[in-house]
Automatic annotation (TrEMBL):
SUPFAM superfamilies: WD40 repeat-like
Segments passing through the bilayer: none
PANTHER family the UniProt entry points to: WD REPEAT-CONTAINING PROTEIN 64, WD40 REPEAT DOMAIN 95
InterPro entries in alphabetical order: WD-EF-hand_domain, WD40/YVTN_repeat-like_dom_sf, WD40_repeat_dom_sf
Organism: Pardalotus punctatus (spotted pardalote)
Protein name, as recorded: WDR64 protein
Length: 342
């Protein structure tokens, strides 16, 4: 079991293995690699990972991690991905009498209808209280709106087919009434109210860096537009303001059979500012404070809490240093505290 393994040592060995694979793949792409006994193929990677972590990792997670590195060695996957969570094949309902060992809850409900494909995983989940529904985004491109009516759940799904890019986060734009999601190289916008089978989505691309997270800015100043915050793998935080006119005026001449209308990212005024020296793990606009927060595993600039206008200039920002960085944060209005998790 995982308790019997020196996890820190195992993780260091695993990261060294990944580094060797990336170097090997980079040399192969440049034609400088010569095969030898030290070549790391899938069998060797699988055996080593099993040795490091034992049964704590599943076969399909090892396969997905290996494929991710081989397809795109420049965008290194997070080691946490090796410990993915997937629903079992049995699909059985959990026992109602079984209580959680961590949280005691009065009621648990499982939506039986699957909204993700096999070997897929939910990467974003957002509640929209005013409209009484929940938005989810899966890693492989399934966007879903769950609408609770008459004590039942109805869902509307939208599948974005992509080559190797995975969805990394989602949110809901309250004024434009669009679901927004980000992949490693693009921004997706979905009109969930559209009943048409085609032309119900927009894709803004290309994005120079790999987008890791997204958040809508909820302000009541202008009901005809929405502002989006995003973070990437280079420590930049982006600010993009959109109106309904953007969908009409900036779309390219896509083929009629295409499900999406493509928008050139160069036609938008996307502001960005480098706030961290590592991946941006989360961005969030805290309306009660009229500030946005962003966090990173950067141990120097771990957490930033600032006015959104600081993304438009180079004035100093309020930043906090946390050993080993910050992976997540939230704000509690009742206690008036921000809690971070590293």
């Amino acid at each position: 079991s995982l308790e019997l393994i020196d996890f820190k040592n195992a993780l260091e060995q695993f990261q060294n293995l990944v580094e060797k694979m990336i170097i090997q793949k980079t040399k192969e792409s440049s034609g400088l690699y010569t095969k030898d006994d030290d070549e790391i193929g899938y069998d060797k990677f699988y055996t080593a990972t099993r040795t490091f972590f034992g049964p704590a990792v599943k076969d399909h997670n090892i396969q997905a991690f290996f494929r991710k590195i081989m397809n795109n060695p420049d965008e290194r996957p997070d080691w946490l991905e090796i410990f993915g969570c997937f629903t079992g094949e049995s699909g059985g309902m959990p026992s109602e009498s079984k209580e959680s060992m961590v949280f005691l809850v009065s009621e648990k409900r499982q939506i039986a209808r699957s909204v993700v494909r096999r070997k897929d995983v939910i990467k974003g989940l957002v509640k929209v209280p005013l409209l009484h529904f929940t938005v989810t985004a899966s890693q492989k491109g399934v966007l879903t709106v769950f609408n609770k009516q008459r004590k039942s759940f109805f869902n509307y799904s939208f599948y974005f087919h992509q080559d190797t890019a995975w969805i990394t986060g989602c949110d809901f734009l309250p004024n434009l009434q669009y679901v927004v999601a980000v992949t490693e190289n693009s921004i997706l916008l979905w009109d969930y109210r559209s009943k048409e089978s085609k032309h119900d989505g927009f894709v803004i691309k290309p994005m120079k860096n790999c987008l890791r997270c997204v958040s809508a800015v909820t302000v009541a100043d202008n009901l005809a537009e929405d502002t989006i915050l995003m973070g990437d793998d280079k420590g930049y935080v982006y600010l993009l303001t959109m109106t309904s006119d953007d969908f009409l005026m900036k779309q390219s001449k896509a083929k009629k059979e295409s499900r999406f209308k493509f928008l050139d990212s160069k036609s938008f005024n996307i502001l960005k500012r480098k706030l961290h020296d590592d991946w941006v793990g989360k961005v969030k606009y805290i309306s009660a404070l009229k500030r946005f927060g962003s966090c990173s595993t950067d141990k120097i600039n771990s957490f930033v809490l600032e006015d959104i206008r600081r993304l438009e200039d180079n004035l100093p920002v309020k930043e906090f240093s946390v050993p080993k960085g910050v992976n997540d944060f939230t704000y509690c209005g009742k206690a008036k505290v921000i809690v971070t998790g590293g």
